Amino acid sequence: MELGTLVSLTVYFIVMMGIGVYAYKKSTSDMSEYMLGGRNLSPKVTALSAGASDMSGWMLMGVPGAMYVSGLSSIWIAVGLTIGAYLNYIFVAPRLRVYTEVANDSITLPDYFENRFADNSRLLRIISSLVIIVFFTLYTSSGVVAGGKLFESSFGLTYEAGLYITAGVVVAYTLFGGFLAVSMTDFVQGCIMFVSLVLVPVVVLFELGGIDEATAQIASVSENMTSLWIDASTGQALSALGIISLLSWGFGYFGQPHIIVRFMAIRHVSDMKVARRIGMSWMIVALAGAVATGLLGLAYITKTKHSIDDPETIFIYLSQVLFNPYVGGFLLAAILAAIMSTISSQLLVTSSSLTGDFYGAFLRRSASQKELVLVGRISVALVAFVAVMLAYDRDSSVLTLVSNAWAGFGAAFGPLVLISLFWKRMTFAGALAGMVSGAVTVLIWVFSDFTIGGEALSSVMYEIIPGFIVSTLAIIGVSLATGQPSQSVMDTFDEVDKSFP
Q1: How far apart are CA 132 and CA 275, in angstroms?
Q2: What digits encode the pLDDT tens for the residues 328-339?
Q3: Which among 478, 437, 444, 440 has a CA at the least distance from the CA of 461?
Q4: Is the residue at 305 inside a domain?
């Protein structure tokens, strides 16, 4: 490894650990502070923290890799995500911020579900916690896989060593600093990602000699590379269903716990508009940079007649060959930032479920706040260890792992969160039916042996679509078939509703 690269990465690691120490001293005295930062995040930290925890290693590795292989037809995912993120800020963010505070100061999503429907059976808490633990462990594993690939391809380390280094640094600052550390590091990491995703495609374009030369090099690979309607990797036209499947990634936003928990933590609902403007501006530029990196990276590889073994490492390759070691180290830090920001958020949400929704709710109801924080830290380390074990399959595709987990959350929680914030008539039974049916539909769609026309179900249609539809129908149908919610539940809804004339 070049000295400059080592220096840049060392500085990055020191900054992350420093933030963890600062957060440890500032806000880890009780569960509300450790898991939600005392509901005191500023708009800019909320926006960049939500964006950075959302756009994980898949944005700097998965998206450029998809563009490199399939061409511009893969952009439909980015379009769907942008629309979904915007709608999430409009419909979910403000109401969820108010509702979680009014509903007995809920600090986790399962906590909100239980309080929203006055669920004395605690079934909503248990099942939603299980969904979070299962899908987030898989999701966290995708980030660790990305970290392993980064260290293997860039630093000459083994894939396994990369797994442990990635997980180790994230666990250190998350375990001690809690939500405040995660949010503050996300803010810094979001800034690094933004600069990198502007810098790399601009420099590559300059190296290629301009847009015309870049376009010519891309077209020399295949004229389909610049088509919105043809997958260049197969030469086949995208069907309407295929485009809808790619756009449907946007549905996932309504049910991603690690993203919407940021909305619960903003200091005031009136700050949400500023957060939305910052967050959406950041996201549009960052996604455009990721798309451009994949296409321009292909043009550069074609022109120089070089080759790469894994398309998902194109950003890494460009950072190594086009920049001096100090800047290259900064760019590699951007990938680590993307990976670590998401892993830390997912670890914390999973830890909150294990601690508050299982340990504190069932095993030790009399546990002190100090004890709960300690258990939360142990849970962070435990989940990280399981994720590393799952990540030992080095052939795992980052984008595939993310897509499965994204669909699971989107189907299980998306309709539940969205409808619960706007429909007073929704019942506990409807919520339970929607959550279970959505999660099960996704699992069947991904793992069953059923086929359509000889193709696997997930190849025909992205699993979030049937999962979201089934969950929505189950919520509405079962709610209408069961009795009215209790008066206290209706009164709480009315109290929240008055805040949004």
Answers
A1: 26
A2: 777 777 777 777
A3: 444
A4: yes
